[in-house]
Amino acid sequence: MEIKDLGEDGLIQHIKKAAGMENERVIAGIGDDAAVIKKKGGGCLLAALDMLIEDIHFTANTPFFDIGHKAIGVNLSDIAAMGGTPEYAFTSIGVRDGMSVEDIGRLYEGLLSHAGEYGVSLLGGDTNRSPRGFVIDICVLGQVGEKDLCLRSGARAGDSIFVTGALGKSALALKKSLYAPVTPRVKEAKALLEITKPSSMIDISDGLAKDLRRLCESSGTGAEISREKIPAAEGASFEEAFSAGEDFELLFTAPASENAKLLSSFSLKTGIQLSLIGKMTEGNLGIFIRDKNNKKTPLEGGYDHFTR
Amino acid sequence: MEIKDLGEDGLIQHIKKAAGMENERVIAGIGDDAAVIKKKGGGCLLAALDMLIEDIHFTANTPFFDIGHKAIGVNLSDIAAMGGTPEYAFTSIGVRDGMSVEDIGRLYEGLLSHAGEYGVSLLGGDTNRSPRGFVIDICVLGQVGEKDLCLRSGARAGDSIFVTGALGKSALALKKSLYAPVTPRVKEAKALLEITKPSSMIDISDGLAKDLRRLCESSGTGAEISREKIPAAEGASFEEAFSAGEDFELLFTAPASENAKLLSSFSLKTGIQLSLIGKMTEGNLGIFIRDKNNKKTPLEGGYDHFTR
Questions:
Q1: pLDDT tens, position by position, B39-52
Q2: pTM
Q3: Which residues are bridge partners to A251 per DSSP?
Q4: Chain B hits for A41, Cβ within 8 Å
């Protein structure tokens, strides 16, 4: 069977099954935004790993500053989605022939400026030659207190579904061949935890549609969301807001009893809008989107690295 | 300036300078085999990261089992070189078009069998499409007690230089297009620490010549080694034993007062040969190799990913 027939989530499930290792200190491994390891002294170590590949995540024309900025940003976003604080970064790069020392300088400028903004130290990694296209893989380590740890798997039927910010910004930028800077919601996740503990959380890296499905699958729930509640960025179509990837906003759930507190406090604290887009349902009910005429459609969409 | 003019170590120095971040909990960052972070509860966290790229580290014909086995092995070797115990692994893969689910299965078989041998749990990572060639990057986390931590930087003039095992095995296998399985010297490093604490240590990934230079540069020493003391594997030429990469033996130094103890105990404990190949000298004396006629030649050689 070819991987494209399996799709990205199918492949991850396949690997998860193959790995099949148990370790009592591991709270979350394959299949969450970051791995979670209980520390002996208390609290949890978080580890996120993300690879960017030429002609998949950027082109030969993308400025190296932007590649560096994005490569670390997507990892910071993973740590944010766990409720954590990023601390250390490691980079592996495959340098294509003809790249200049100045290119590397700009790559690290983008990487380090973003790391510095979040108090993250770059500690090392690996440098290689890559015969066909530039590749960068970044590992970010962070930490989170056990009581603040947000997994994908904690949502319950009846919980409200929230999304931060506006969606489709990255898709709009892409149409103009621009880079929409990744803004990891590290501070926003912290502010959220001061208001209430989400029952589940994920960052929207592959589109609301797909990442909502992931929350539901991990939590064993269904979901029902309202089409007109989805916060589209100015100029973005519904499809762009709903299915396009790389917005890196937070998608989370919380008991409905927390709705009022969240809606009144979150935007005040952070300056970022918060939208209540629907609710989790029982797992056997599936995932539906309801339009303004109250018509329910099963959920589809989202970005898959392999099947598209 | 192009990267090939700078070379691999030049590039690492360039990145190190660009990073320029200080963190009081970081004992070693860019430029050792693994990064070392002091844990709050005592001991140190180790993090190694190594990327393998198609047509650089393997070819389209290399069995996927071997790629997986090697990709984790080189990281386990990095942890061994710090005197540490590997614990967790994370993998990022870029999957080339046309790869099958069976290919991924064999990759993870190689990876997991090797991880399992060393008690390492695979915890997650990232999966991507790669349009031109397979790429895998692995991060291994481990730990080491502060008193057992071996850096590249601790050698002093007068210290003896030792190497474990036989060199040139990987070069011999390469000539037959075979994979010489990476055997990370994790147990051997532990046995060594029971005998004495090395003053500096590195794993031989890019050839004895180059990795000895790295030890000397990190420690601020020169070195003098004897050509006929270099332990060439059966059938390997001097050049293969001295300069070829990927043997993953340990190269370490210890005060000369420990020579007798090391030479009498190490092989008994491990079943692996130990060779005393020379001694560290003052830093301003440079690095020399002495032949059987007592002729001294300045050291050259080793594998550079960029200039070769």
A1: 888 899 999 999 99
A2: 0.90
A3: A163, A202
A4: 39-41
